[in-house]
Amino acid sequence: MTTVDMHSHFFPHTWPDLAERFGTPDWPWMKHLDDDNAMVMVGDREFRPVYSACWSVDKRLEEMDRDGIDQQILCATPVLFAYLRKPEEAADCARIFNDAALDMTAAAPDRLFPLAQVPLQDTDRACREAERAMADGHRGIQIGNHVGARDLDDEGLIAFLQHCATIGAPVLVHPWDMLGADRMSKWMLQWLVAMPAETQLSILTLILSGAFERLPRSLKICFAHGGGSFPYLLGRVDNAWRHRDIVREDCPNPPSSYVDRFCVDSAVFDDGALRLLVDVMGKDRVLFGTDYPFPLGEQKMGALVRGSKRLSDDEKRVILGENAIRFFGLAPIDTVDRANQEEEFQP
């Protein structure tokens, strides 16, 4: 059985000085403290401590082997998206970090696979970069869950998702730029409260706006962090849809009927929550993901799913590898049958 972690992040060891490149302040950069530790900076502000697994293929493979992870999909951290910058600057950033991801994964091409970022604030540029990235070997596209006040029901973002379906690019939606910053400045509350809410907001926006009625079923779209708050409050949403016409005015079917249109990862960190997640989404729509190598990620990768007392062996097998292999078109590491690479994920 091949185990695939489909939600992990990377930072390059270094990248061009973006503040100098674009002539504006407060761009992210890497401040190395020693061979193994660094601080991601945004201008003069400390953003996040990181360690060498972010940029070292050897370290990453060592920890994957330690935890029995056969393959891993990696993507940039949202602080690199540059959605609030000029479109041409965000497009330049996307090329820089997408090429860096290809360079990193080329060192272990049967085990590491990249997802690309795009300048999502500009639909045409985003579509062009998605095409370039997929042609160069990326396995899909990671996007943030909004661009400023534009949520996923925005016409430009719907057009981008439609384009991803057309070119066969799977999409991972990752929350970023969380709401409520003024009230959540302590205790990482933006990550603990606002981040799950952002993901629920994105899923409900696609459902309640009727966007899923316009998006093709061929679109492969997955939401990070177990779908955030969505699976655990779906009953509340269905209840509102049944009893308030303003909730269902653009949504022809009960919200719970749309769970067959998207996937989520398994990063929920609790066995009971994982059981509920599988009950809501179905075993074929939960993909194993860790959020490695960050402190809020799973520290022993795979421990939750493998050690679950509430999942069957069949559910564990499907979640740990089979779903991601089909979703991203991977070849299992324990086979030379490349025909598996072309197997289509059926929404």
Mean pLDDT: 93
User: Distance between termini?
Assistant: 23 Å
Classified in CATH, the superfamily is Metal-dependent hydrolases
Give the oligomeric state.
Answer: single chain
Helix content: 25-40%
Protein architecture, described:
The chain is of the alpha/beta class and 347 residues long. It has helices at 18-22, 57-67, 87-105, 123-136, 155-167, 189-208, 211-214, 230-243, 245-248, 271-281, 303-306, 313-328, and strands at residues 4-10, 28-32, 37-42, 45-51, 71-76, 112-114, 141-144, 171-174, 221-223, 263-265, 286-287. Helix 3 (87-105) packs parallel to helix 4 (123-136) and helix 4 runs parallel beside helix 5. The longest helix has 20 residues, at 189-208. The two termini are 23 Å apart. Residues 335-347 have low confidence and may be disordered. Its EC number is 4.1.1.45. Pathway: Secondary metabolite metabolism; quinolate metabolism. Belongs to the metallo-dependent hydrolases superfamily. ACMSD family.
What's this, in brief?
With 347 residues, this protein is of the alpha/beta class.
Characteristics:
347 residues, alpha/beta, TIM Barrel, five-stranded parallel beta sheet, three-stranded parallel beta sheet, 12 helices, 11 strands, 14% strand, globular, disordered C terminus
Topology:
Layout: E1 4-10, H1 18-22, E2 28-32, E3 37-42, E4 45-51, H2 57-67, E5 71-76, H3 87-105, E6 112-114, H4 123-136, E7 141-144, H5 155-167, E8 171-174, H6 189-208, H7 211-214, E9 221-223, H8 230-243, H9 245-248, E10 263-265, H10 271-281, E11 286-287, H11 303-306, H12 313-328
Parallel strand pairs: 1-5, 5-6, 7-8, 8-9, 9-10, 10-11
Antiparallel strand pairs: 2-3, 3-4
